Amino acid sequence: MRVVSGIQPTGNLHLGNYLGAIRNWVRMQDDVAAKGGQCLYFLADLHAISQPHVPAELASNTREMVAALVACGIDPNRSVLFNQAQVSEHAQLQWLLNGTARMGWLNRMTQWKDKAGKNREGASVALFTYPVLQAADVLLYQATHVPVGEDQKQHLELARDIAQKFNNDFGAGAEVFTLPEPIIPAEAARIMSLRDGSAKMSKSDPSDMSRINLTDDADTIMTKVKKARTDPEPLPGEVAGLAGRPEAANLVGIYAALAGTSQAAVLAEFGGKGFGAFKPALGELLVESLAPINARFVELRQDRPALDTILHQGAAKARALAGPTLDRAYAALGLVRG
Ligand code: TYM
How far apart are CA 12 and CA 24, in angstroms? Predict the structure, then answer.
């Protein structure tokens, strides 16, 4: 088993990242090691330049995100933790895969359509070819499993299509790349905004009230939950009663994911009660779950030399793992490298 996943260092970790992906990263770290496999987790800083950004902020966000991941439980001694920019093999493989990816495939990516919006002519080429870099990220390490939230599923399918076409066209009967499987958590595949139950919780939402950041203190968390949008009805007794109530469904889903239980179990406890009773319980559960992460993060983020050492050492391990696959890809394409 080879587990690979990434996160963009564009600001703080939020609850969607944590429940949708990072918590699975931490769980897999233990499970996979027990089976003799390996986990690689990286900061997708090369992806971050596909949209307008402030260079000094990208550098500090990258270090902050390492501190956040370690605070969440990623252990740099057990997992390979690094940033893409220090492993040039990612960019090299992307170029090789650009020969295999089709314009039509990329044109169908919903993230491209959402982020480019009506201004396609003005969008960067990097935003368009972003999913090819993402394919390179996982194929470079022969990833078998990729833990992500629901929103990344389409990108993973594209990575599989690219791998399959490359193997067919250039593999000469052998598999150059492994086809990766997405691992998407059942209870927290898509955590929605606290202000709008139809939009995913996201770093790019201009309203900070729309998300819970892992750096929020207890008072901020309680306020955000209290102000979260809801409807006037009490909670239903059964999951079917959440249909057509996206905000209620989201809050119940968050509670279930944090408590490690199902939505049905949460509704068995809170069904018939109003949000006046449910919101404080959810707020307390959030504070209790996030406080230890917050405390570790605040301590770790101060230690810039330690964070740089983690990234430096992680990059050396990643390069060693990436080398053989990149060599095979160059050779398969008939490229002469001396
Ligand atoms: P990013 O940085 O947007 O998000 C990191 C992870 O968090 C998940 N996620 C969510 N899950 C549930 N609910 C939400 N509201 C929510 N918001 C974010 C994402 O699904 C993701 O798993 N392109 C990727 C980064 C990337 C990557 C990769 C991932 C680059 N290369 C290779 C996997 C493999 C991204 O921008 O994720």
Answer: 18
Please say if 115 is a catalytic residue.
yes
Confidence of residue 308 (pLDDT cuts 50, 70, 90): very high
CA distance 310 to 79: 11
Atom 37 of ligand 1: nearest residue by CA position: 7
Strand partners, 81: 41
Of the pLDDT bands very low, low, confident and very high (cuts 50, 70, 90), residue 30 is confident
CA distance 56 to 189: 32
Q: State if residue 145 touches ligand 1 by the CB under 6 angstroms criterion.
A: no
* 11: pLDDT strictly greater than 80: no
**Beta partners for residue 42, in sequence order:** 6, 82
Distance from residue 20's CA to the centre of ligand 1 (Å): 8
Measured CA to CA, the distance from residue 35 to residue 28 in angstroms comes to 10
Residue environment code for 41-69, b if the CB has 16+ CB neighbours within 10 A, otherwise e: bbbbbbbbebbeeeeeebeebbbbbbbbb
Q: How far apart are CA 18 and CA 15, in angstroms?
A: 5
The pLDDT of residue 268 is above 90: yes
The 10 Å Cβ neighbour count of residue 232 is 6
- What is the reported pTM? 0.95
